[in-house]
Design goal:
mainly alpha
Length: 64
């Protein structure tokens, strides 16, 4: 099993942990620099950071 998967599973075994939501590289680097071991993101945050509505990317193209 890849090391990152093992580390992520270990976080769950410790109980409750905080996983901040970042959508940009700069924010992700700041959060990891502050010691967070895992980060989350959402499709809507990423879409908005690109100036688009959520659901207008790859998934929408597949539904067409």
């Amino acid at each position: 099993m890849p090391k990152k998967v093992e580390c992520f599973r270990a976080l769950h075994k410790t109980g409750c942990f905080v996983m901040p939501n970042r959508w940009d590289i700069a924010g992700a680097r700041i959060m990891t620099g502050l010691g967070f071991k895992a980060l989350a993101t959402t499709s809507s945050d990423y879409a908005f950071s690109k100036g688009k509505k959520d659901g207008t990317g790859r998934l929408a193209a597949l539904k067409a």
